[in-house]
Specification:
Belongs to the serine/threonine dehydratase family. Keywords: Lyase, Pyridoxal phosphate. Its cofactor is pyridoxal 5'-phosphate. Helices cover about 45% and strands about 15% of the residues. It is an alpha/beta fold and about 300 residues long. It has two domains: about 5-50 and about 145-300, Rossmann fold; about 50-140, Rossmann fold. It has a six-stranded mixed β-sheet with strand order 1-2-10-7-8-9, with helices on both faces. It is globular. The termini are far apart. The model has no long low-confidence stretch (mean pLDDT about 95).
């Protein structure tokens, strides 16, 4: 894994993804005391950055592997991403989803042609259901975040951000499974100028924060957070990258997440999901640290279940 691998990935997937816009806001700059650049992956195909990693992972499979299809387990955004990427590439996608996944995300998966298997909402049930499909169909399992080709695809969002704004002092991303922050860290390492990468994570699901402290992958006994996309944990492929290249992680409370999301809706006039707002919440929480800095913020997605969203 080197700079060349990232450049090849960017070229490989470019015709299948959007180079998403970067928004700014004078009011939010004044509020935080920083110069903020919001990379809007909520405008990505299927509404999240995960389209990048899913596309790259499928494209790196052999023809024979593609013919047997791909399988993943996901509560929402990667399920949608793999379904749409597979459809674009003429590949079958088998998607294991917990039965409490947001309805809007499940419907989107089906609309993209994903073949859905429901399971109990725990990691063991997800993994068992996915393993059964691999066994029966011969499909290739693609992990939503702990897969090097997924991580390299995710890195392209940070690469685009740094191409447009090469002098960023830092980039902040949400942290869930670790695929986005690991990819962003590689982008910053190879294409930034001493650009730090910082994570935002819900206090209620702070396994990545604790993992960096302990030096081993920690888990969450519960993850009762509005940021449903961040209820997963780090993996053995992305964790070493995070350990090496991520500066630190800022934990945010639930009300700080909803406040940040509300501000983004009101001031940038865009739809972002709670998980996406966590990075901005981290900047709001630690204004002194970010003061007078050029800060990139990756808004990871905008797939909101409007039936359940609460701004109050």
């Amino acid at each position: 894994m080197d700079k060349q691998a990232l450049l090849e990935t960017e070229q490989r997937i470019s015709s299948y993804i959007h180079n998403t816009p970067i928004l700014t806001s004078q009011l939010l700059d004044e509020l935080t005391g920083s110069k903020l650049f919001f990379k809007c992956e909520n405008f990505q195909k299927m509404g999240a950055f995960k389209m990048r990693g899913a596309t790259n992972a499928i494209m790196q499979l052999s023809k024979a592997e593609q013919e047997r299809g791909v399988v993943t387990h996901s509560s929402g955004n990667f399920a949608q991403a793999l379904s749409l990427a597979a459809k674009n590439l003429g590949v079958d996608a088998y998607i294991v989803m917990p039965n409490n996944a947001p309805k809007v995300k499940k419907e989107a998966v089906l609309s993209y042609g994903g073949i859905v298997t429901n399971c109990e909402p725990n990691i063991t049930a997800r993994e068992q259901a996915a393993a059964q499909i691999v066994s029966e169909k011969g499909a290739t399992f693609i992990h939503p975040s702990n897969d090097l080709n997924v991580i390299l695809g995710n890195a392209t969002a940070g690469m685009e951000l740094l191409k447009a704004h090469p002098d960023l002092d830092m980039i902040v991303t949400p942290v869930g499974g670790g695929g986005l922050i690991a990819g962003t860290a590689l982008a910053a390492h190879y294409f930034g100028k001493q650009c730090l990468v910082i994570g935002g994570e819900p206090q209620a699901a702070d396994d990545a924060f604790r993992s960096l402290q302990s030096g081993q992958i920690e888990t969450n006994e519960a993850a009762n957070t509005v940021a449903d996309g961040l209820r997963t944990q780090l993996g053995d492929i992305n964790f070493p990258i995070i350990q090496k290249h991520v500066d630190h992680i800022i934990r945010v409370e639930e009300e700080e997440i909803t406040k940040a999301m509300k501000l983004l809706w009101e001031r940038l006039k865009i739809v972002v999901e709670p998980s996406s707002a966590v990075a901005f919440a981290a900047v709001l929480k630690d204004k002194e640290y970010f003061k007078d800095k050029f800060v990139g913020i990756i808004l990871s997605g905008g797939n909101v279940d409007l039936e359940t969203i609460k701004f109050q």
